[in-house]
């Protein structure tokens, strides 16, 4: 089969045309024929060697994907032909975090079991996954929309972590990549209108304006120069310096959502006295525990009004075009790249 295989040791991502098709091993295994598979910022960090991944062997990347069940094990809860979307994340099921309902903080699994980061993923024609990580994709959700289910499930977790946000609160979204765009849409569909989107890349800033949300769009320097402060800030960049510079923009009792995936080695400095005086809340968001059903609900309710590739600035590529996809994403010409398998 065709696949994109990454070798951590050499740092090389390679397009293979004749990789062996995965087969059923466990009774609850499912072989998914992949339709669409996303390329995200975490993938770029992996390729750059800045994010932990499987270092034992070359593996197929891709942790955001959907498709059709090709074959299923004896006890699997899905049948061939069903449309499905895959949650790449799981825990060990036995550690304290897992038993406390926090498998995303698993002490033994987590990153070391994630499909597309540790196990073979969806940048391939076929992928083997356990049925416990598979969800039925409703007919009204297209495959191209289904490819966004994993990032939306992370947003759904971020929404839960942020807590109730009253309509009328001043909100700042930093970064207009795909995550910033989806956060913008999520706030809009929930009724929020006092939203500012900050982005330094002119192409992305122009793209996010096309979504028709009628928010305030500006550059980081414009935000800083305005003197405005915010009740909620969502950082979608994962850049330590951005956190340092924007933390001071919180109002008293404001909430700062650290959503963007950063380089594990990056360090940000903040003023603890200011956090103390303002009673600021800093909220970390780690993947998507139990939020795939919520993401599917969001996809159904948002529909074509919001989830359109042209509106979101998403580019579609074949697996063989991976170099072009990565290049355009790095240059900010796209908010996101998706492989149509």
What does this structure look like?
The chain is α/β, with parallel strands linked by helices and 341 residues long. It has helices spanning 41-47, 96-99, 143-146, 149-162, 178-189, 202-209, 220-226, 240-246, 272-278, 292-306, 309-312, 322-330, and strands at 3-7, 12-16, 29-39, 59-60, 65-72, 83-86, 126-130, 134-136, 171-174, 195-198, 216-218, 230-235, 250-258, 281-284, 314-317, 336-340. The strands form three sheets. Strands 3, 5, 6, 7, 8, 15 and 16 form a seven-stranded mixed beta sheet that branches. A six-stranded parallel beta sheet has the order 11-10-9-12-13-14, sandwiched between helices. It has a three-stranded antiparallel beta sheet with strand order 2-1-4, with no helix packed on it. The protein is globular, with a radius of gyration of 20 Å.
Summary keywords:
seven-stranded mixed sheet; 341 residues; six-stranded parallel sheet; globular; alpha/beta
């Amino acid at each position: 089969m065709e696949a994109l295989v990454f070798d951590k040791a050499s740092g090389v991502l390679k397009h293979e045309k004749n990789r062996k098709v995965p087969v059923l091993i466990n009774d609850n295994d499912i072989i998914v024929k992949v339709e669409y598979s996303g390329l995200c910022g975490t993938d770029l960090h992996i390729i750059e060697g800045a994010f932990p991944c499987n270092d034992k062997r070359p593996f197929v990347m891709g942790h955001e994907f959907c498709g059709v069940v090709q074959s299923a094990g004896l006890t699997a809860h899905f049948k061939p032909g069903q449309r499905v979307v895959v949650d790449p994340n799981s825990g060990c099921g036995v550690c304290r975090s897992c038993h406390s309902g926090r498998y995303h903080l698993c002490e033994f699994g987590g990153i070391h079991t994630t499909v597309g980061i540790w196990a073979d993923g969806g940048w391939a024609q076929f992928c083997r996954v356990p049925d416990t990580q598979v969800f039925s994709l409703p007919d009204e959700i297209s495959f191209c929309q289904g490819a966004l289910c994993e990032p939306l499930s992370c947003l759904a977790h971020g929404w839960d972590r942020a807590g109730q946000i009253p309509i009328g609160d001043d909100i700042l979204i930093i970064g207009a990549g795909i995550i910033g765009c989806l956060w913008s849409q999520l706030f809009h569909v929930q009724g929020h209108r006092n939203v500012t989107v900050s982005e330094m890349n002119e192409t992305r800033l122009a793209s996010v304006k096309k979504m028709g949300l009628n928010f305030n769009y500006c550059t980081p320097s414009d935000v800083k120069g305005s003197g405005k402060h915010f009740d909620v800030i969502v950082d979608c960049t994962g850049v330590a310096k951005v956190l340092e510079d924007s933390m001071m923009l919180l109002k008293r009792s404001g909430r700062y959502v650290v959503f963007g995936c950063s380089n594990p080695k990056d360090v940000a400095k903040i003023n603890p006295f200011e956090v103390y005086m303002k009673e600021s809340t800093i909220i970390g968001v780690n993947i998507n525990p139990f939020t795939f059903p919520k993401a599917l609900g969001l996809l159904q309710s948002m529909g074509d009004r919001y989830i359109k590739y042209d509106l979101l600035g998403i580019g579609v590529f074949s697996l063989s075009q991976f170099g072009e996809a990565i290049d355009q994403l790095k240059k900010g010409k796209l908010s996101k790249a998706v492989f149509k398998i």
